[in-house]
Amino acid sequence: MTGNLDQGGAGERIVPFKMAHLVIRTARYAEVVQWYRTVFLADVVFANEMLTFITFDDEHHRAAIANMPELAPKPEGTVGIDHISFSYRDIGELLTTYLRLKQDGIVPFWCINHGPTTSIYYRDPEGNDIELQVDNYPDPKDAAAYFHSHAFASNPIGVEFDPDAMVTLWRDGMPASQLCRQGTAARPVAAVAR
Fold it and tell me: Which domain holds residue 87?
């Protein structure tokens, strides 16, 4: 690869300042729109029979969902983006979202403490994976340092947890620092299934 990494001149590195949105192509338009609206408590910015824009914050649209009924289902085991992750401010927000989605019939397929994050994974109606997470370290430098730790070297994936057991601990007043520690509410190894 060639090119000047300092394209802004004077040593300035020009990079995006945020991720703006994702676009989802779907043959299950109404179902997918409703799923994303439910997961993100999103508002519709624009919708017609071909396209829906939704947002959950001050961005004009965080997702666009395109109605493409002629598309075939996504085959398993193909290349592409594995998942997209969204962060919550704290473990309480993440667990509150888990409870809300569970009440709406949207349940995770994987709950794991990766070390730097506590993460709950969902699959949309088209088979796209969405990670909802909370950072386990207040300082991003500490999270980055985790990748160079013995804990990461011996277990780079993390420890699965039972979200309902985690909710119980949270409601019982366990501090966030303990809730976000690997091994809290861990699933027995024999019960692990992804």
Answer: 82-194
